[in-house]
């Protein structure tokens, strides 16, 4: 792999991973060939704990804005937020056809409807096994298992060669929908010769083979057998196969099922209509009816497995849910893992549910969740099956990509120079069957806060950090224009710095300090005051509030 | 177990778990008998991610202030921060003798010296096996293994009976210091009859037996064999046995060792002097010398395994360490697990070290860390060995206590009514060999921020949250006293709300809005303006900054 600056020529395939935060090429990947551009996935990421006030994060695709008319289409590999969530923002920039399998399309429609944009979107349904020509890209859709049905890997052919993109996948031999990964298609790709494999690295530090989704069934059976009251199951609203498993357990144990929370209700309705969620007609009851039934006759399917305060489970833990409360005798199942960064919030929700008298079941107490991503042995199997010339580990933090690369060398015999561990924005070029590092484009992320997209950057974030740490103090002075003397006692406004009711003495001393500085000021009163107060307040409190002085 | 209000009579033993945050009875436990009070441990907790600006957290021991002269002594079970860190604050309130084993005492001295309080403290050295009378409490010290040497469980005898407190423990059969847990002493307690066991619940959701600290040695050997450049190992400065293991690996592989970071240097020096860290005289070299040696001849022992920005490892990851940088060829070993809530920060440090060209080794990539706490089988063994009448699960979040209780019922045959799952501040009373729930005292936590202890509460925290989310906008108006008209253009100060350089238009519109409201005001201009601006800015940005208006 040689570093080389080269212009984007007709015969060159360029691949640019974009995405947010630590993960690489997770949320968006760009393919460029012969003046045409194909976008794979348009996902969001959730802010880290120190990204104060940020609602969510989208990939920075600014570098595409200059070649907007080259974009020929968008392909979405599956219906999870981190692959679909930014669709509205991407559509605003490039209103091109969007290709997705039926369930993924259904989830996109629910999402676009909420943004009032479903009419604008040019959605095209594809099915696993289909081949679609999108500009100069021949895209083949290959079914893969994941923790949502109807996921696909992609075979993308241009004259530069065939590139396989796994999407998020696991090699589940007994998936809930009985539809295993299409090994034959992957082998067929291999037979044609695969130039490069872009492969999911999420679980690169997990040895072995990820358990089948089916291992959850016995754990659920045990929960249903033992529960004497209501059962509440929390999971992602998009985890359709998990909802299917809960529905089957409810059937087996003679309970009715109700969906709670807008996104859970909407997704379930759509998935039932499309036939991805198979439930007998009398299984599902409205929540109002469920709440009137005997506790041991119902299971409530809720959102909030990540402890989000505004979700059903978050509100139940806090005691702020309007329709119903968690009561002693309830069994709550958290059928999910905390997304990195959410561990604290999820722990707090579990503890509060216990406090309210519920029995809470969560992994590792019981196997009520498994990962949707391939582990090490599956990654090696994928390499052995697809036999790519080059490997580009994607979907994971830098550490996972390094681990995936080490695995490919140690267990699949791929030489180091055939593996590209790259970061978001680092373009790769394929020419004459060789891979080259090309230039780097801005590949970071863009904060979305309220209606602002990208207007919050490092400087506003630093201000929020300072305010969050020590608050501010604001001093309003009225002085006599000629003598410079104070006309009134200084007015002080402060927030986030000290508890005012207990700080009368500190405020009185601060006023005296201000008066002293005013009395002996020799010119620049504002900066003298700010400097003096900074030292005075730090001495008094060991805190550093932002200080503002206005002299009227 | 019956709920009963009763006065603290002579014959009653009261136990009150205190502590911080989610964990119960972790940081401090109070024993009261016959007018005497014994305090066990004085620890701190680190703030959760949404506790903005807080330095650390101490237990709320306010309820003891009225009976200050009853406090007879403080016993510290081992030298970790969450059991020692609040010693300075507790000493300020009760300057009574502090009992600790030699290494624990050494760590307390280092800590107290830094606060300038070592002369004030009345430290008493005890050794495992000793019995000390502290007021009406006979305290027996029983050696237990943990991830720090010289930890003890306590047997606390009063006429009400014998209570055993495990402290933090694991049942390691091959500990690094070859000093296993004192099973004979625990059995002897059982022989005398144990009224209640207060037992560590940290790992109550982990099946099996926690691996010995010794399992780390082969993992370190592999790292030392393969590393071609420097090795940097990060762990807690108090994890003396881990430092011992790294020193032994360095000896085996012919490297010199240097300590980096103040707390690492001070603790190592103290532990070498006391004989708890056994290193040959020529193994340790100053960091300056180490940096001049060939990379493959040194190992650097650093702080910062939790990714703290101010630690050595945090600074190395950020590229802001003064003395040296991480360079390609370095091998960095994170010999620790992230404390809950630190996962994101630790991941970021790992990714950045990879970015700088280091090879980073961490669990689960290699077994370079094991837990210092007992798992389920050890908990059951402890119950079977000590044979208490009552179990009080402590040291863990509510969910761990519940899990410990379930385990005690299922695997150790203890009936539910003999187990007290209680929260901090809930007093237990033992009278005539029976356990009763007594009243609840304030058992929460106290924020320490700068020099302020307890002055930051929910209202300041809410202000910081609001400022962190959307910042503030401050409007300064000069109006004509008689006509009420504006004398100057409104002055606007804002931070954390929008990026000012890109927001000229918004600010201009905001000024126009202010002028409109002033022109048509009919009385309370300030509240009219605040109300109007709140709506105007929310419409424009979907954000809710704090709004302040001052009219001069």
Q: Class of the largest domain in chain A, according to the CATH hierarchy?
A: Alpha Beta
What is the mean pLDDT of chain A?
93
The main sheet of chain A comes to: 9 strands, mixed
CATH architecture of the largest domain in chain A: 4-Layer Sandwich
Helical residue percent of chain A?
Answer: 25-40%
The gyration radius over C-alpha positions of chain A equals 28 Å
CATH topology of the largest domain in chain A: Metallo-beta-lactamase, Chain A
What can you tell me about this protein's structure?
Chain A is α/β, with parallel strands linked by helices and 552 residues long. Chain A folds into three domains: 11-209 and 371-453, 4-Layer Sandwich (Metallo-beta-lactamase, Chain A), CATH 3.60.15; 213-361, Metallo-hydrolase/oxidoreductase (Rossmann fold), CATH 3.40.50.10710; 471-551, Roll (Ubiquitin-like (UB roll)). The first copy, chain A, is 31% helix and 24% strand. The first copy, chain A, has 15 helices and 26 strands. A nine-stranded mixed sheet of chain A has the order 1-21-20-2-3-4-6-7-8. A six-stranded mixed sheet of chain A has the order 9-10-11-12-13-19. In chain A, strands 15-16-14-17-18 form a five-stranded parallel sheet, with helices on both faces. In chain A, helix 3 (102-114) runs antiparallel to helix 7, helix 9 (312-318) crosses helix 10 and helix 11 (376-386) packs across helix 12. The first copy, chain A, starts with a strand and ends with a strand. Mean pLDDT of chain A is 93; it is low at 2-10.
